[in-house]
UniProtKB/TrEMBL annotation:
Residues 17-114 form the Gfo/Idh/MocA-like oxidoreductase N-terminal domain. It comes from the Bacteria. This is Gfo/Idh/MocA family oxidoreductase. It comes from Ferranicluibacter rubi. Gene3D superfamilies: Dihydrodipicolinate Reductase, domain 2 (3.30.360.10), NAD(P)-binding Rossmann-like Domain (3.40.50.720). GO terms for molecular function: nucleotide binding. Signal peptide: none annotated. Pfam families: GFO_IDH_MocA, GFO_IDH_MocA_C3. Residues 124-244 form the GFO/IDH/MocA-like oxidoreductase domain. The lineage of its organism: Bacteria, Pseudomonadati, Pseudomonadota, Alphaproteobacteria, Hyphomicrobiales.
């Protein structure tokens, strides 16, 4: 992921002119040195100790690209040194930890935001525009399917709740963003299917009750060999007057009721809205631009911590439901405004 961020910085002219990498930190010094060579960061300081690096270089912001278990230590150290922080997801390894980070950021007077780069792709932005246009009427349901079989190796293979915690949050966050609804409760069944190379939780099925009597369903697996879905999931948005389907790649279909006589009235196609601002659809680069803009203007980035914790609450609510076999009331836990 560090390479993904550095590619985004190098590939956008505005970011390239605004952001200077002054240091790279890794527990394995050789890894940081190799990264510096690959991206031509000849002037960057290399270290294995984050507080020492912060003291030596006095940066304005820190890119937090560590495994989830190290998140709190990195973010708290950066905030303590007066840095703004942009973190990889998930925001934290528990809701209590996430709330603690919100408090630290508030006390430090610094921005802590989370990389939800899936919000900043064309398909998600276009879906949100369609919902807001009311072309399919009031949104009543969001259904997402996610079936892939990535053989990562490394820390993911050993994670608990690997699909929900490391990947499903992308779809959960996008569903909350697109729908504009508040998650109220969740019931989830989590499994680790036969043939899984993950230690725990490679598959999950979750049903969320949303505000305005809407629902969001998620069916996913990270060990589903064969014909895959998109990394962005396959989507079906159901409205009072029609539906939108998206394959997660290039195929959209917007349909409303037709005028055929009889039991089924058929369907009539509508155009899918286009993107109005290309700068919002560049993935990591758009996240970074949004973050820099917030620092410049004193505004809040779209994925600021106190908003992102609402998506994280969906993940931990699903995990708790899977553990207990019971529905979890998200609003009762104070996770929503």
């Amino acid at each position: 992921m560090a390479k993904g961020w550095l590619r985004a910085l190098a590939g956008d002219p505005l970011l390239k002119s605004r952001v200077e990498i002054v240091g790279l930190v890794d527990l394995d010094r050789a890894t940081a040195e190799a990264l510096a060579r690959e991206f031509g960061l000849t002037e960057a300081t290399i270290d294995t100790d984050l507080p020492a690096m912060l003291e030596a270089t006095q940066p304005q912001l820190v890119f937090d690209v560590v495994i989830p278990a190290a998140r709190r230590a990195v973010v708290s150290a950066a905030l303590a040194h007066g840095c703004h922080v942009l973190s990889e997801k998930p925001m934290a390894t528990s809701l209590d930890e996430a709330r603690d980070l919100l408090d630290l950021a508030r006390k430090a007077g610094r921005i802590h935001a989370v990389v939800q780069n899936r919000r900043f792709i064309s398909g998600v932005r276009r879906m949100k525009r369609l919902v807001e246009s009311a072309a399919i009427g009031d949104l009543t349901a969001v259904h997402c399917d996610f079936f892939l079989a990535p053989h990562f190796g490394g820390f993911r293979d050993e994670m608990q709740n690997v699909l929900l915690l490391d990947m499903a949050i992308h779809t959960f966050d996008a569903a909350r963003f697109v729908s504009g609804k508040v998650p109220l409760s969740v019931y989830c069944v989590e499994t680790n299917p036969a043939g899984s190379w993950y230690v725990h939780g490679a598959a999950a099925n979750a049903i969320f009750k949303l505000s305005d009597d809407a629902v969001f369903t998620y069916r996913g697996s990270w060990c589903a060999e064969g014909r895959r879905t998109s990394w962005e999931s396959e989507w079906r948005l159901v409205g009072a007057n029609g539906m939108l389907t998206w394959d997660g790649e290039a195929a959209f279909e917007v349909t409303v009721s037709g005028d055929e006589p009889g039991l089924l009235h058929g369907a009539r196609s509508l155009p899918m809205p286009e993107v109005t601002d290309e700068a919002e659809t560049q993935g990591h680069a758009s996240v970074l631009l949004d973050f820099i803009r917030a620092i410049d203007t004193g505004s809040e980035p779209e994925t600021i911590g106190h908003d992102n914790i609402k998506s994280l609450s969906m993940v931990f609510g699903a995990i708790e439901s899977a553990r207990t076999g019971l529905a979890v009331d998200l609003s009762a836990q104070g996770q929503n405004p």
